[in-house]
Amino acid sequence: MKNISDVKVGVLFCIVMLCTVIITGCALFQRSDPPIIPPTSEIQTIIKNISWIQGILIIGVVGSIFACFNGAAKIGIPLLISSLVGYGLTSAMLFYAKLIAIMSLIGGVTLCGYMIFLKHRALREIVRGVQSFRDGDRIHKFAIDPKLKFAQKSKSTRKIVKKIKEKVNGSS
């Protein structure tokens, strides 16, 4: 016969194991299919707004057709064209929203990179022009130096120099 303390330890061990399985959640007791994630409120708001816009544009199409049939073609045809174009754009926004967002991000980053490139190129050209002027002869310091021509070679550099001159002249 077993000792009573051994039985108590065994029962206590079983209770602790059962509580551990229940509290931590065993894979046997959980659902196998993943839960459905509800759409975010921002997406729902955008879809509702686009739906309202599309509804208004459909009313515009119907109104323009009605205007054309009642003799007001000068108002009806432009309204019909603008309503159809607007409806097409909102449909494209709804169906291709991710693609539009990705392309906008890529375009924005590319534009920022190009603007930074132009600023650095202009700065480099200006510094080269100043250095060639400083390295020139002291006697011909005020004469037109042909080496300075490359200091304002590009259009972007000329625009940047013009903006800086306008700021300096405007503030003094």
Keywords:
mainly alpha, 172 residues, flat
Helix and strand arrangement:
Layout: H1 4-24, H2 41-69, H3 73-95, H4 97-135, H5 155-171
Helix pairs in contact: 2-3, 4-5
Describe it.
This protein has 172 residues and is mainly alpha-helical. The protein has a domain at 99-172. The protein has helices at 4-24, 41-69, 73-95, 97-135, 155-171. Helix 2 packs antiparallel against helix 3 (73-95). This is Lipoprotein.
Helix content: over 70%
Share of residues in strands: under 5%
Low-pLDDT parts are none
Work out the oligomeric state of the chains in this entry: single chain
Summarize the structure.
The chain has 172 residues and is mainly alpha-helical. 75% of the residues lie in helices and 0% in strands. It has a domain at 99-172.
